[in-house]
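ARCHIVE CARD
SHELF: 3
SLOT: left
DATA:
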Amino acid sequence: QVQLVESGGGLVQAGGSLRLSCAASGIIFSISGLGWYRQAPGKQRELVARITSGGSTNYADSVKGRFTISRDNAKNTVYLQMNSLKPEDTAFYYCNAVGPVPNRGLGDYWGQGTQVTVSS
């Protein structure tokens, strides 16, 4: 069973920082693509950042220069460092993993999400 468990969300003032973590199990983490997405009330879920198994990254234009995605394959964990937070970053943040699962093949998995609220 694949599990993605996010942590690190919370309430922060504009200009502050948060670091989200997503611990994965059940998936072959080292060769999986990983990402963070977010969904604000009344809006569609959108990509925030992704990182490939080789470490290549891409970001939404709205977070470039402020957010950094990274991965620790030894800990099966992906991180999202969020700096210079803005009220418009307020959303539910979800971890995503696309990768192989033993005896099941390739799959696309989501965590339960963590709330990030940025006050002005």
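SLOT: right
DATA:
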Amino acid sequence: QVQLEESGGGLVQPGGSTRLSCTPDSFTWNYYAIAWFRQAPGKEREPVSCINSDARTTYADSVKGRFTVSRDNAKNTVYLQMNDLKSEDTAVYYCATLVACSGGYAPTRWGQGTQVNVSS
């Protein structure tokens, strides 16, 4: 049962940019934290970024300074702006809901993922 939907991504050249979007299919999430994860071929899923309900954010070291997470509660949408993309950013990107970005909470709802390919 899909509860979140990601969009955006696709093929991007190294050094390029793209923006991912995440929306819920049937609920509002103003009080949830929303996290982005990614999974590259042959690797485990890893956290990328997270935004709390109060807009405080966290980032993995590998994307700091290049990725920006934001939320528009009026549109019920969370964005992941990805700049200066590298080949190692190639992965399926997932969004998920959490109680909060810190505290070790497990994601409760997931999207099906969207593919980002960084290649020339």
